Amino acid sequence: MDQGIKVMLVDDHTLFRKGLAELLDGRDGIRVVAATGTPDEAARLLAEAQPDVLVLDLNMPPHGGLALLRTLQGEGWSRPTLILTVSDAEDDLANAMRAGARGYLLKDMEPDDVVDAILRAVRGETVVAPTMTLKLVNLLQGGGSKNAARDNLLAQLTAREREILDHLAQGQSNKAIARALDISHDTVKLHVRHILSKLNLTSRVEAAVFAVEQKMAPRQK
Question: What CATH number matches the domain at 138-213, 3.90.550.10, 1.20.1260.10, 3.40.50.1000, 3.40.50.2300?
Answer without folding.
Answer: 3.40.50.2300
